[in-house]
Amino acid sequence: MGRCCCCNCLFSCVFACICQVLCAIIIILGVIILALWLIFRPNKVYFHIADASLTKFDFSPTTNTLDYDLSLSVDIRNSNKRIGVYFDKIEAKTTYHRQKFANTNLESFYQDPKNTTILNPVLKGQSSVYLGDSEKSDYNDEKKSGMYRIFTVLYMRIRLKSGWITSGKIKLAAGCELKVPMKSNGGSSGTFERTNCVIIPWARH
Asked: Cystine design at 182: which of 64, 91, 117, 146 (Cβ 3.0–4.6 Å)?
């Protein structure tokens, strides 16, 4: 009976010690991640759409379908001096009048400090979109001008690296309001202006 009590007591002590160690590790990791986040800050990574063009953007009001061919050139600049960034996942999602019509996954990569990476996604296909009378009127006006208002969001899961320390995964989203020209027969209906993307709340739909 006495031995059982001793064994139970020993087991309880060992279990309590393990729990304390695990809690300490979790707290330390949390402090490290918080410290990295405070040093890093999302505004120290800059996102730009350097170029964008359409070769097709045809909406059919009878079938509510949109045929599109959109090319983007995305610049990602890590301005941190000592912190690298793992971009484990990047998804580009595009909408027209708040109607999603395309998305694609970009390649994952590691970005060194003080470095710029250029990505060139192409979004091509056909999607169902539902435009009201006002949106249809806007589409017709934009078709005449050859410049289309398209909103692109980059949804990312990143990790921060400083020396031998790597953080857990962090969600990040950057929104880009674009005016995209139509290209045809080697010409363009306008000139795309390099666009700054802003950090926005992560809100997947």
From this structure: 146
C-alpha distances (whole Å) from 6 to each of 13, 18, 93, 166 are 10, 18, 61, 42
28, pLDDT greater than 80 = no
Of the candidates 68, 43, 72, the one whose C-alpha atom is nearest the C-alpha of residue 56 is: 68
Confidence of residue 35 (pLDDT cuts 50, 70, 90): low
Instruction: Assess contact for 196 and 72: CB atoms under 8 A.
Output: no
pLDDT band at 134 (very low <50, low <70, confident <90, very high): very high
Give dist(CA 178, CA 69) in Å, integer.
15
CA distance 129 to 90: 24
Q: What is the rounded CA–CA span in Å between residue 50 and residue 147? A: 16
pTM over cut 0.90: no
| CATH T-level assignment (fold) for domain 43-198 | Immunoglobulin-like (2.60.40)
The type of residue at 112 is D
Q: CA 160, CA 168: separation in Å to the nearest integer?
A: 8
Domain spans, the chain: 12-41, 43-198
List phi, psi (to 5°) of 202: -70, 115
pLDDT tens by residue, 67-113: 999 999 999 999 988 889 999 999 999 999 999 999 999 999 999 99
Q: Nearest Cα to 76, choosing from 19, 156, 130? A: 156
